[in-house]
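Problem: given the chain below (117 residues), write out its structure.
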Amino acid sequence: MIEIQGTIHTPQLPEDDDTPMDDADTQSTAQTPIGKLVFPNYSAQNPAEDTGWMKRVYLYVGKHQRMTGEVKKLGKPLAVIRKRDTEATMGMEELEIVEVVRYKVIFSQRPEPVSEE
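Solution.
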């Protein structure tokens, strides 16, 4: 889970576009790439008890901005669930747990400029 203290501005569609949208366009979800997550202090060779890697996380937004954050353990884990589509349920709705989230990444500082290298 990623927590950002602020607003992510996405590209706007032109308002003067009078092209009618078909059903496929209205049902598709718009995706905006946010950036690349980097854990600079993480090493797979470190023991599981070593939490030093959690102190610094970078989120690169585009090519010229970097946000610095940290990983925090959630007080209570969250479950990500979805509806299960099966015909054997006889009209009953089934839910399945897809993932359990135990940590969140918090970015509470302003982005800082970085140069392309």
